[in-house]
Amino acid sequence: MRKRVGIIGFPARHSLSPVMQKAAFAALRLAIDYEVWETPPPDLPARLGSLRAPDVLGANVTIPYKEAALPLLDTLTPTARAIGAVNTVLHRDGVLVGENTDAPGFLRALEEAGFSPSGARALVLGAGGAARAVVYALAQSGAASITIAARRVEWARRIAEMVAAPVECIPWEAGALTKGAAGADLIVHCTPLGMAHTPYASQTPLVADQIPPSALVYDLVYTPAETPLLREAQAAGARAVGGLGMLVHQGALAFQIWTGRPAPLDTLRQAVLAALKGGYP
Ligand code: NAP
Description:
Layout: E1 3-9, H1 17-27, E2 32-38, H2 44-49, E3 56-61, E4 75-76, H3 78-83, E5 88-92, E6 95-99, H4 102-112, E7 121-125, H5 129-140, E8 145-150, H6 153-162, E9 167-171, H7 174-182, E10 186-189, E11 216-219, H8 228-235, E12 239-242, H9 244-259, H10 265-277
Parallel strand pairs: 1-2, 1-3, 4-6, 7-8, 7-10, 8-9, 10-11, 11-12
Antiparallel strand pairs: 3-5, 5-6
Helix pairs in contact: 1-9, 1-10, 4-5, 4-9, 9-10
Bound molecules: NADP nicotinamide-adenine-dinucleotide phosphate.
NADP nicotinamide-adenine-dinucleotide phosphate binds near residues 200 and 247.
């Protein structure tokens, strides 16, 4: 029997997950189709319920359902439960398991960039869903300190409550950002600033003068490949890494969860690069 996986979101059609996963299934000659399940909010419970069909292996979950899906699943992995968000669902014998591969995907991307977060002083910019996964991953990896900068500091505080590590929450103001960045070995950008095809495409959260040359700047934004923040980081003499690695690794982990096989990483990466080159979205 052919199997199916898909992506649940609203909208879902701009996601790069179908491109990546279809390429990986084809490369390994797996009889699995990847479908796009654009799901308006009232349909979310039924859509998740439909994952219990015998031919469905699971799903990706994207905006705006990473948190809303939680109570509709049968069980959660410890990572998904701790973060309070799922981006991957595994269907096994009628049971739906929620997982979060953003956190380990981020850590693998850092590792690939040759950076160990253990003992590092980290500044996280933003306090949305991606920041939750990043802060959890950094805390689990033994970061020495974590500072979260957010327009709504109460959102940062909620993230801080999730982890046992010491977390400082600072406002999104030039002075506070300068101070927060000054002591950082790692700066992780988790807002949409600099993202192509948005009103913020030309914006950067920090300029070169605020970035220590010794820091690694990881921008979760992956389109364009060189964001305004990454240009500022390079101008400061810092190491600058875009979000493509995290995207590929979170997808690779989802692939492994559904198929039980290691993902063909190069295939995933090339599929994303080709889509971006072809003018995605
Ligand atoms: P989200 O839940 O909507 O959170 C966005 C965060 O950015 C919020 O803290 C928001 O603050 C802040 N923000 C938005 N506009 C801002 C502005 N103009 N100035 C300052 N802060 C602003 O989104 P998300 O899921 O966390 O995603 C964040 C980014 O990460 C997106 O660009 C997404 O594409 C990227 N991402 C990449 C990967 C990857 O694999 N590379 C994975 C996940 C996400 P407010 O609460 O004040 O609005």
